[in-house]
Amino acid sequence: MNPVLRRTAADLAAAIRSGELTSVEVTEAFLARIEAVDDQVHAFLAVDRDRALETARRVDAKRSAGQALGPLAGVPIAVKDLLSYEGLPTTAGSRILENYRPVYNATIVQRLIDNDLVILGKTNLDEFAMGSSTETSAFGPTHNPWDLERIPGGSGGGSSAALAAFEAPLAIGTDTGGSIRQPASVTGTVGVKPTYGGTSRYGVIAMASSLDQPGPCARTVEDAALLHEVICGHDPLDSTSIDQPVPPVVEAARRADVRGMRIGVVRELGGEGYAPGVEQRFREAVEVLREAGAEIVEVSCPHFVYALPTYYLIMPAEVSSNLARYDGMRYGLRSGDDGSASVEQVMNRTRGEGFGEEAKRRIILGTYALSSGYYDAYYGSAQKVRTLISRDFEAAFAQCEVLVSPATPTTAFKLGERIDDPLAMYMADLCTIPSNLAGNASASFPCGLAPEDGLPVGFQVMAPPMADDRLYRVGAALERALTARWGGPLLDRAPDLTRSVQALVDEEK
């Protein structure tokens, strides 16, 4: 493998600023890697080679002219295909938007452009971000680079797989119920859900508007923090955007010090249903933080046990509302319009052909929950429980600076294993959903490989709203200690898409 591919985004940016590497050299290395391995991984839905190289040449010209370059200038990045990028297909993983090309950029995409990052292309996802495995994409599943027969998480499996396969050093994801953190967990990468309102949703195709939040995906904590600072901050185009300074996340990542920090282990996020290897690696990571000087306490968040059913009432209700716009009349797919069909017939045919089974399931569930006579019993009751979950967080954060748990109950399951069992699929987000309901900051960091299958385990850290820097402080301390223990980054132990996962299991034993 080209050694450039294994360098961190921070290292690449420094090398480009110093002249050791050009952005064109770096970009060409990642484009070559995509060409070499993406037929196995299927992380990308669209690769924007010409525009990527054009951006790279512009960055190199700036450097040659003596102009100052930003902290990630010239570094390639992959973007989840839920964010509008002018001129490039933006499908949300759905046939109903198969030929849609936006005429504007999402705010986050524009900030990437303004900060001279090189956009490689758009990554695969579950249709409209509905899923935990990237198997509901209308364009085929993405494969986990650790084991190509397993899922890379969802809905942002394309972004996490691109990182784990060394097809990109950075990526953008979105997190509605765990769609950044769960893929990060099962691919051994870093994924951060900022505080709700900390990143702009303008130009992000909506799934559930009170839950969706874009965020950074990376291979290291520092890289995620650098990207966090680029994409976060107030946006007047988003009515939910918080008009406050971005927390000092890069400073926290470089500090990597948890001495005296009070960390709470959530009692309800563990036990029955959690894989033994996941719990083992989680407990070991907690001990690592204790040895690093943190004070560890156990806390109870009693209403977290209701988070999953609460989420699966609120989210489908918002899905039902947001996806109503895809009617075959205004934009996107139009089917059955032979000149004689009624509007209702065209809409019925378009939605029947354009939406996949999971999207239809959630639209139907949400419409039912919002229907007359059922609104108070279902949607209204779920919102009341959401308030109780938020109060659990408030009480816990009064005792601790951060909360921790496994990021997901199991390691990556096999492709096809849960696709016909929605309830089993939904359980993958058991640990991540509470933070979306409450809107606080949360992240997943690698904490090792499960001994039973040699696959990555994620360590979730949760912080109060607008205290995102605490995530990075804990994540960096954990990364520093574990990297020293492992003798290098966890991803150095990943198969290069040629070695079998069994070889890793044997090494772990």
The domain count comes to: 1
Estimated helix fraction: 40-55%
Count of alpha and pi helical runs: 18
CATH superfamily: Amidase signature (AS) domain
Q: What structural class results from the helix and strand content?
A: alpha/beta
Task: Kindly identify the CATH topology.
Answer: Amidase signature (AS) enzymes
Order of helices and strands: HHHEHEHEHEHEEHHEHEHHHHEHHEEHH
Q: Rg to the nearest angstrom?
A: 22 Å
Layout: helices, strands, pairs:
Blueprint: H1 3-6, H2 9-18, H3 23-41, E1 44-47, H4 49-64, E2 76-80, H5 107-114, E3 118-123, H6 157-164, E4 170-174, H7 181-187, E5 190-193, E6 214-218, H8 221-231, H9 249-255, E7 262-266, H10 276-291, E8 295-299, H11 307-322, H12 343-354, H13 357-370, H14 376-397, E9 402-406, H15 422-426, H16 433-438, E10 441-449, E11 456-463, H17 468-486, H18 501-508
Parallel strand pairs: 2-3, 2-4, 7-8, 7-9
Antiparallel strand pairs: 1-3, 4-6, 5-6, 5-10, 9-11, 10-11
